[in-house]
Amino acid sequence: MTAQKIPFKELNDSIFSAHYGDFLNYEKKIKLESNPYLKINKVYVHYRTPASVEFIIYSDKETFCISTSDLDIDGKVLSFPENGIIKVLQPITVEDFGDFEVTGNIIKTRKRHTTPFNQWYDYVSGTIKNDTIYFTEKFIGKEKTFEKKTFAKTKKTDFKEVYQPGLKTRKYTNGAGLISYEVTGEFNVEK
User: Fold this and answer.
1) Interval 43-84: pLDDT, tens
2) Nearest CA-CA partner of 161 in 140, 129, 118, 132
3) Exposure string over 55-72, b if 16+ CB within 10 A, otherwise e
């Protein structure tokens, strides 16, 4: 409250609870931004196939956003590779997809899946090393915490997301009130 220059004499329960929520969000943001391993509000790239790339952004609200683009469709959204570089020709919208938790260099992500008859949460966890996230295990987990369900099997997975400093982001809130980004710039072709 001192940082926002709100005099303490104006305190009542509604003002206190509103500012307490702001404080918790601020505390979360500072914790994430001070993590030396994960790049917050920056773009990571994952090649789903040699012709399909995912753009992933981990936000300061502990959510992550994903968008997938094909590399070889028509060269209107992404340029064809030239000297190992692909340029984003039209801004790519990257939208809220799940949430994450990071402790040191360990990251855990959670995605919710809903069908007409069932709902479950997929968890993928891995480690962060040298601007690359290596995901190694996947399981179905509990709704409220980043824990495995009692009888769920842990499956091995092997994919990576690489930080791309040449990609720039513009953060905004979409019509549904979810965090979204526009991605522009250029990135390296996977070797």
Assistant:
1) 999 998 888 899 999 998 889 999 988 887 677 889 888 898
2) 132
3) bbbbbbbbbbbbbebebe
Which structure tokens are listed for 26? 């601020």
The CA-atom distances, in angstroms, between 104 and each of 29, 44, 111, 128 are 15, 18, 21, 9
Residue pointed to by tokens 């824990």: 147
147's tokens? 């824990």
Q: Rounded to two decimals, what is the model's pTM?
A: 0.82
**Mean pLDDT across the stretch 111-118?**
83
pLDDT in tens, 128-175: 999 999 999 998 888 878 888 888 888 999 999 999 999 999 999 888
**CA separation for the pair 101, 85 (Å, rounded):** 31
Does residue 34 carry a pLDDT above 70?
A: yes
Residue 55 sits at the vertex; the CA angle it makes with 132 and 183, to the nearest 5 degrees, is 115
* Separation of alpha carbons 141 and 152, rounded Å: 8
Burial of 175 (0-12, 13-18, 19+ CB in 10 A): exposed
Q: What are phi and psi of 58, to 5 degrees?
A: -95, 115
The Cα–Cα gap between 137 and 85 comes to 30
Neighbours of 119 (CB within 10 A): 10
* Amino acid at site 143: E
